[in-house]
C-alpha cells in the first residue's frame, strides 16, 4: 500500500513503494520521469539508488497510475510504459536514440546489443549500446533487460541482483506473454 504525500526536491516528486520485484523508487520532475530504481531490500535503498531521499512518496500528476502499473508489471502482468515521458536531460543524441529504440522492443522479446546498434544507425557500436543500457536511469520503462548478447547470451545487468534479476524479468515477461491472448 502506498502512502500519499507531496515532496519537493528541486521541483521533483518521489514515489516509493514495495512490489514483487522489491522496493521501487521513482523520481519525477513536474512532467517526466527522471529516474527509477527497483529490486531493493528497503525503501531507503531504493530511494538512494533513484537519487532521492527515503520516506517521501507522491503520485505524479503527469502519470498518476505509474506506481500501480509498475506494481502490476512486477506481479507478472502485461504492462506497457511507452506513454511515460522521460527526462532525457544530460543524455547524448546517441544515448537518446538507443533508449528510444530500446523502448520499442516488444514485451517478452529480446534483441542483441549489435542489432540495437544497427537500428540506432551505428553498426559496430554494440559495446556503446551496452554502456547506454548499463547507465539506464529508467529500467523497466526503458527495458534494458530485453537487450542481450550475441547468440542470445544474457549479457550483463547493472541492476540489483545483476544477471539473476535480468533472467527473472525475462522469465516474467515470457510467462505474461503466454497468458496475453492478443500479444502485440
How does this structure look, described?
By secondary structure, the protein is of the alpha+beta class. The protein has 2 domains: 13-74; 93-179, Winged helix-like DNA-binding domain superfamily/Winged helix DNA-binding domain (Arc Repressor Mutant, subunit A), CATH 1.10.10. 34% of the residues lie in helices and 14% in strands. The strands form 2 sheets. The protein has a 3-stranded antiparallel β-sheet. A two-stranded parallel sheet has the order 4-5. Helix 4 (113-119) crosses helix 5. The longest helix has 18 residues, at 162-179.
What is the compact description of this entry?
This protein is of the alpha+beta class. The chain has six helices and five strands.
Sequence-ordered SSE layout with sheet pairings:
Layout: E1 13-19, E2 22-28, E3 33-40, H1 43-50, H2 66-74, H3 93-103, E4 111-112, H4 113-119, H5 126-134, E5 147-148, H6 162-179
Parallel strand pairs: 4-5
Antiparallel strand pairs: 1-2, 2-3
Helix pairs in contact: 4-5
Key words describing this protein structure:
2 domains; three-stranded antiparallel sheet; 184 residues; Arc Repressor Mutant, subunit A; 5 strands; alpha+beta
What is the H/E string? Answer: EEEHHHEHHEH
- The amount of beta strand, in percent, is 5-15%
How much helical structure, as a percent, in the residues?
25-40%
What is the makeup of the main sheet? Answer: 3 strands, antiparallel
Q: How many separate helices?
A: 6
At CATH's second level, what is the architecture of the largest domain? Orthogonal Bundle
* Class derived from helix and strand content: alpha+beta
Mean pLDDT: 88
Amino acid at each position: 500500500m502506498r502512502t500519499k504525500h507531496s515532496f519537493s526536491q528541486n521541483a521533483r516528486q518521489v514515489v516509493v513503494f514495495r512490489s514483487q520485484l522489491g522496493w521501487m523508487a521513482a523520481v519525477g520532475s513536474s512532467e517526466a520521469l527522471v529516474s527509477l530504481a527497483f529490486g531493493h531490500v528497503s525503501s531507503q535503498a531504493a530511494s538512494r539508488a533513484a537519487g532521492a531521499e527515503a520516506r517521501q512518496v507522491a503520485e505524479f500528476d503527469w502519470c498518476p497510475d505509474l506506481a500501480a502499473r509498475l506494481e502490476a508489471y512486477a506481479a507478472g502482468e502485461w504492462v506497457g510504459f511507452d506513454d511515460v515521458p522521460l527526462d532525457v536531460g544530460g543524455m547524448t543524441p546517441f544515448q537518446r536514440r538507443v533508449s528510444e529504440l530500446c523502448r520499442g522492443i516488444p514485451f517478452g522479446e529480446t534483441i542483441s546489443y549489435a542489432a540495437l546498434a544497427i537500428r540506432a544507425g551505428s553498426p559496430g557500436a554494440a559495446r556503446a549500446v551496452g554502456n547506454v543500457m548499463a547507465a539506464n536511469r529508467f529500467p523497466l520503462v526503458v527495458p534494458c533487460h530485453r537487450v542481450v548478447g550475441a547468440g542470445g547470451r544474457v549479457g550483463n545487468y547493472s541492476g540489483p541482483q545483476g544477471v539473476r534479476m535480468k533472467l527473472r524479468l525475462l522469465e516474467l515477461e515470457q510467462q505474461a506473454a503466454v497468458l496475453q491472448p492478443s500479444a502485440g
